[in-house]
Amino acid sequence: MPELPEVETTRRGIAPHVAGRTVRELVVRQRALRWPVPKALAERLRGQRIESVERRAKYLLLHAAPGAVIVHLGMSGSLRVLAPDVPVRAHDHVDLVLDSGKLLRFNDPRRFGCWLWQPAGSTHALLRGLGPEPLGDTFDGDHLWQRARGRKGPVKNFLMDQKIVVGVGNIYAAEALFRAGIAPGRAAGRVSRDRYVALAGHVRAILAHAITRGGTTLRDFISPDGSPGYFEQELAVYGREGEACRACGGDLRSVRIGARASVYCPRCQR
DNA sequence: CATCGGACCTGTTAGC
DNA sequence: TGCTAACAGGTCCGAT
Hints:
- The chain is built from six helices and ten strands; from the N terminus they run αβαβββββββααααββ.
- Helices cover 24% and strands 21% of the residues.
């Protein structure tokens, strides 16, 4: 589910309810997520004031004085702000109970998400080596072009490599490549500088626009207030295999690249 | 270092 | 209708 726009939508949804609040307790019902939720996490958080909620790549960071909680939504995770009397449902693995009386509830059927701890002054290994934020100042076509020198793998994998640029997953990679007219299977090193400039612009535009739409809801993504995202209606290629290309009318085709379905238009994308 | 395949886990859907 | 297999938005890790 969650690529950058969904994580950012989540951040914006929870921040007003979480920032400035103090943690009453952390309730962990299922410790076995992508990595075990540290046993000491509840103790570390109890009584701490959450100062801010930051996003880095697809990670959410809940900052407190002694450190930060690192939350990743994995492929099926979601966070919701709820009243304490809302019944626990299947896959509600973690509750962060706040002094406002509300709680932040983490639900994740596939358990690919994580809740980890990062002591103040350190950078967790997961956050090291990440590429630039696609909506930040250091991301542009030149960056992509430089990093693509000598790379023979498909440009789609390159674009989804979090060391190159963060936040772009399968959906938005497919969409950005369509808009840029680049075939997803083309070798990353064989895309011109000009086309990388176009691609970077489309990545930026599509992510920014998807955020304004509240992200993409395919199956189970919901924002913290329970509403879905509305970007799905604007997808040009993702999930549209066999349907007509909105630009040329030809049939969209799906190929597997790196074990991921990759839909594209063979006529518009080269 | 780049690239590839497997792994983690459960729910939904396509196909027989 | 019912069972099984394939597939799903992420990304780490180890082997090559």
